[in-house]
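pasting Acyl-CoA dehydrogenase for the record, 354 residues
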Amino acid sequence: MRRSDETLAEDRLLRDSARRFLEERHPWKEPAARRAAGDPAATWRELAELGWFAMAVPEELGGLGADAHRCLLILQEAGRVMLDAPVMTTLLIAPRLAAGSDSPALASLLDGAAAGDVRFALVTGSDRGAPLRVAAGRLDGTSALAVGAAEATHWLVVADGALSCLDAAATPALRQELRLIDGRAASVLRFDGVPVPDEALVATGDAAARLAAEAADLAIAGTVADALGALAAGIDRTTVYLRERRQFGQPLASFQAVQHLMADSYCEMEGLASLLLWLGAALDGDPVERRRAAAAAKIFLGRQGLAAVSRCIQVTGGMGMAEEYPIGHVFKRLQTAAALFGTADHHLHHLAAG
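structre below
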């Protein structure tokens, strides 16, 4: 992906401003401390005031018309502080699906999302329970893990036969609320003959299948971006630790074995960043290329990404396992990211199958 010097300068300004804001207002804390001190509604309003939820909205729909790359930059910075607020669907997925649909079901909610009043969560089908299916105007089945579903005002439900946008408060569903290993909240939703109003339908038939495939790849892109940000912060913190911690009268960073391990982790982080660049560009291109890029990034995250953060724990020794130190939480964040929206083995199988 080639970007002009002017565009790259604007990218850097966006990244730097987002990093300053998040590090000042939402610095990393141990998950229990984050939940105790957090105010989700206030956080959402702050992010809306920054214009983040209008970024990906097309200009013709009243937004800023930013490309996917800039949205992924924001998600990387959110990952650096391991932000709990589930912003990915509202920031990236919903605006792009609205742009690709002829239905006003999503477009009519984008102004509310930009103001911080509407929050979306992506709800996809599970391969372990009854698949999500819309037939005769009714929704049945069990979802996969839906991060942020409890906080969302609207659910983007990807089901066989239809893509719909349901008012969460008005939609009867059996909810199983869970706490993921990285501290974030998620839900499993079960629908039993839930009516889907015509005005909630985003797309049906072939159009629904096309948007569902796009939603899946957007979700992977956002998840990989968040994980890359967490990994970069973990490597930065580990590097500082190794420079300050002394053993046998020397900084740990001076030992060649430690340097080799950290060099490997750094190279794998850069490899993941390169794959995310490819995926960001592919999101606006051919669906086949987009699917290949999404699968490649997810496979790399689930293998090399986890290996990179594992080495950071290794070189920090017992400190890396302390609850008060962030690197163990980075590992949990990446473990969660590696499991959401298909494991590395799942994507490798489909990539090999063509």
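The mean pLDDT is 93.
The longest strand covers residues 185-195.
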